[in-house]
Amino acid sequence: MRVSFKWLKxxxxxxxxxxxxxxxxxxxxxxxxxxxxxxxSIGDVVVAEVLAVKDHPKADNLTLVEVDSGxxxxxxxxxxxxxxxxxxxxLAQVGARLGEATIAERRIRGEVSQGMLCSGxxxxxxRDHSGILVLPSDLALGSDIVAALGLDDAVLEFEITPxxxxxxGIIGIAREVAALLGAKLRVPDAQVxxxxxxxxxxxxxxxxxxxxxxxxxRYIEGLAVAGSPAWLAARLMTAGVRPISNVVDAxxxxxxxxxxxxxxxxxxxxxxxxxxxxRADQGxxxxxxxxxxxxxxxxxxxxxxxxxxxxxxxxxxxxxSEVSGDTTAVILEAAYFDPPSIGRxxxxxxxxxxxxxxFERGADPDMPPYAAARALALMAELGGGRPSGAVVDxxxxxxxxxxxxxxxxxxxxxxxxxxxxxxxxxxLESIGxxxxxxxxxLEAGIPSWRPDLRIEEDxxxxxxxxxxxxxxxATLPSGVNGGLEPAQALERHLRRTLSGTGMREAWTxxxxxQRDLDALGLGEDHPARKMVVLANPMLEDESSMRTTLLPGLxxxxxxxxxxxxxxxxxxxxxxxxxxxxxxxxEPLTLGAVWSxxxxxxxWRGPGTKWDFFSAKxxxxxTFGAAGVEHAxxxxxxxxxxxxxxxxxxxxxxxxxxxxxxxxxxxxxxFDVARGTVVAELALPALFASPLTxxxxxxxxxxxxxxxxxAVVVGEAIPAATVTLAIQQAGAPEATSVRLFDLYRGEQVxxxxxxxxxxxxxxxxxxxxxxxxxxxxxxxxxxxxxHEFGAELRA
Amino acid sequence: xxxxxxxxxxxxALEGARSEGLRxxxxxxxxxxxxxxxxxxLGRKAPLARARSGLGGITDPTDRKKLGQLAxxxxxxxxxxxxxxRGGFERAELDARWERERVDVTLPGDAPxxxxxxxxxxxxxxxxxxxxxxxxxVAEGPEIELAKYNFEALNFPxxxxxxxxxxxxxxxxxxxxxxxxxHTSPVQIRVMESQAPPVYVVIPGRxxxxxxxxxxxxSAFFQLEGLAVDEGITMGDLKGSLGTFAREIFGxxxxxxxxxxxxxxxxxxxELDVQCFVCRGSGCRVCKGEGWIEVLGCGMVHPFLLEWxxxxxxxxxxxxxxxxxxxxxxxxxxxxxxxxxxxxxVRFLAQFATGGGGP
Lengths: 794, 359
Ligand SMILES: [Zn+2]
Description:
The complex is a heterodimer.
Chain A: E1 2-4, H1 5-11, H2 18-26, E2 31-36, E3 42-55, E4 63-68, E5 73-78, E6 88-98, E7 101-102, E8 106-108, E9 111-113, E10 116-117, H3 120-123, H4 145-148, E11 155-159, H5 170-181, E12 203-206, E13 214-221, H6 230-238, H7 246-258, E14 263-266, E15 274-279, E16 285-287, E17 293-295, E18 301-304, E19 309-312, E20 316-317, E21 330-336, H8 339-348, H9 354-361, H10 368-383, E22 386-387, E23 392-394, E24 403-407, H11 408-415, H12 421-430, E25 434-438, E26 441-445, H13 456-467, H14 486-500, E27 504-505, E28 511-512, H15 514-519, E29 532-533, E30 544-545, H16 550-563, E31 567-575, E32 588-599, E33 608-609, H17 612-625, E34 631-635, E35 641-651, E36 654-662, H18 664-670, E37 677-682, H19 683-687, E38 705-714, H20 719-730, E39 734-743, E40 752-761, H21 770-788, E41 791-792
Parallel strand pairs in A: 12-15, 27-31
Antiparallel strand pairs in A: 1-11, 2-11, 3-4, 3-6, 4-5, 6-7, 6-10, 8-9, 13-21, 13-22, 13-23, 14-21, 15-18, 16-17, 18-19, 19-20, 24-26, 25-26, 28-30, 29-30, 31-32, 32-33, 32-37, 34-35, 35-36, 36-37, 38-40, 38-41, 39-40
Helix pairs in contact in A: 1-5, 6-7, 7-10, 8-9, 11-13, 12-13, 14-17, 20-21
Chain B: H1 3-27, H2 31-42, H3 47-53, H4 61-100, H5 119-133, E1 137-138, E2 144-146, H6 147-150, E3 178-180, H7 185-194, E4 199-208, E5 220-231, H8 235-250, E6 256-263, E7 266-275, E8 292-301, H9 303-308, E9 316-324, H10 325-333, H11 340-343, H12 346-349
Parallel strand pairs in B: 1-4
Antiparallel strand pairs in B: 2-3, 4-5, 5-9, 6-7, 7-8, 8-9
Helix pairs in contact in B: 1-2, 1-3, 1-4, 2-4, 5-8, 5-10
The complex binds zinc ion.
Zinc ion (ZN) binds next to loops of chain B.
């Protein structure tokens, strides 16, 4: 909402600077976005008249314009083609200042240009760069443009919150200012000349009073549609509205002033002067002012005549009944429409207008008679029309003004400081709330322009903001036992553990599509193919909710590998989304990618690369941190993984996910190095046994015995199986079993492999003797020989 | 030979053993030859031992004692010479060893792989921890949410623009009943439905809006919400709590202010501004010349919500607040484009491997 400081001062005395006023409004809820002083950057631009327009002899896209600013004729080269002889235009004379630029006499393609003609954008009064700004014809030649257009003003731009439709008009802002400054609001008169010889020329029929509780129509004839005078054009431009004609500008002026949207119909186009307010019929069509042909919905409220729809009520008028240069009589509409109905139509047709924005937030139902009279008076003044004194005011459903009770002590209790009842009443009265006070009980009559005031808390907010939020004390409530739930603490612990292993945490987008799964090479019936789909995506690639973290992580890995690093290790802990009958499941998932260099070569030795086992080590460390004692690893094959270098991981007997090298085809599609390793694990599996507080175990006081054991077993026997057998057979003395060598070659039979283990044997009861150690060793060797046909390697 | 002559001979032999011994010891060139020198100077066949063997024939106790003392003195002297010589050799050997073992301490160390938490994770934890310190717990809820919880329960009017498919993602196959939550506020409702007051929770989580991506907008972003409902909660409590939070993040000596605003689910509603931590209020680019930086939206829980969840609105009151974690992180770390948080460029992420939180 743009507010001219000059205009504001006509409605309320202001004795502070614009900056101070903006600050005060910000701190009472009408936030100042910016202050713009259009006149500050303009100097020596004057009003001139176009005497002739000729083509530039050497450039098709330029014209030579002869202008007179009252002190002689000048020739200016101009790029726009919207000028006609007799137009008044802004002339930046030689030496004029426009923002940072100073205008000099110069030659353009051989022709001398003695100055420059300005567009609206160049003067900061509109966003229009395309043509020269054509000025109202009543401006005196040679007059300074800053004064002529009232640009020696401060334009304050405010953010208006959706609950305050009243502040979408300058009267509403002035009311706030009056309350803040303790000044009196001066609402302009709306006197219509009583030419009421004419009977009512308009009949209004409201078929749908729920959609249109009130409809005021007025009639004016004998109009001469023409351009608006300078003062009006200037006001509209300052507020960011393009002047069109005196009749239309009058309605827009009143809209800016009162915040109440009006509409002017060309009376000649309204059959029998008969206005019907109804819902659209199925299949009805209407060409709106913007030239769009719209198919109306039976829920759309329309203004019609007996023959056809004339406009979409409260949203946009129809092209057919628009005021044009030939219009001589106008039916003026000032109505109150049901806000939800306007909102639905506006959304349905994706059409937000100045009118719909106000009606859908709730206009002032008491405003139509006043706003109509203001506009009618302006039209009569500007267009020389004869208004009818008759007012058609169809108001089948009077809008009740609610009364709200405010208990003064409730205000103090909620705000946390004492505000006495009298001050509360005074604050409320300052914004037009009628207050009847009985002790600490305030009965508030809500003004028609404040649809947002409905309950006691709404009034408390008014008191609080007018008293100033700076009066609130700063206190702290008691709180409860603050802290994380065990699963939340574990989640943090895992993130820290993973970043401690040298991985970088990544955050990728949860929006995905089937294309990502195509890139992973997943089959049509892969469970990840069942995605939660958005009904209204913004991009095809972001049309579904992801079922895997891998595509995002692989893209991030590729980005890093392409740009600067020999290697990258990323993890993400985030949700994936699995459709169900009702709300989808959103399990927290750990995704990881390891690619390329793990540690670089240094003066100390060669570097290492990420591979299956370095990645597996990271997961094992993570499991350790999660308190998982036994994770199961079994071979798995299937996209997107390498057929023989991938494992299913199970925790507590349940599959938690997979770890594996990425299939070479997938590496290629995502542009990551071959041998890239990925993992994806459902975290609920790790969280199944939430980390409990560690209970420290006692340590054995007796020394350990260390023995090595190398066994030869068949190639097909997984190492983990052998290790487990050693742990079981060696229990309880074998407190640590570590595989330290794997050998295949000349010294063992083909098809067999040698596994060498380092064992730590220990007893809590005493020092183990060599005989004790030998017994444990024999036990283990027997078991291995029995289970796997293992032989001790010499 | 007289007794006197024998005494003189023995004494001379002892003196000779001394000088001979000292010469031998002195001649030793290293620890090995020093061991040999010891045998030659103090061994059983050494001059000293031979001279000592003559003492057995001395009968006069006084003489024997005197010569005995002399023999012992010579022995001690030779031992001392040996020890001193050995010490010299050992020191030299140690010095040589230290020299052999010298390293260039300026060579780079072995770098363990360094990882890092994502800056949004760190920022969210930092915020959460401030509220944990104020007595809050952490709650979470679904991102794919019932429209009823996302809008209706939060007092959004049915024609509110946020409900439109221009602004909110709807889920296919669920009509207008299921959305990608547009804020973490529906979790407020879920928490209150599941427990009686007092409620003190913070709610971090992913949220979604149909915004075109630019330097300050994302269609999927990270919000952090808070809710306190208890008997006697005041707007002063809101101001104190959120002021504590803002100062802890941006600077303990900064001013904060509440500015009236509007949200459907709070009444009164406000925005919290913190004094610009760059210019301290005089106006700069970071604060767009205002001297203040908008941090979050907040307000007193609208009675509509309390009634919706079945709380006694006459007995309980509360406040709620919500902020964009990307925005807080961007402000705190001087990041000008919040899309950087989702590029996952290691050069960017690595900057957050160091440094803690705090103002
Ligand atoms: Zn600043």
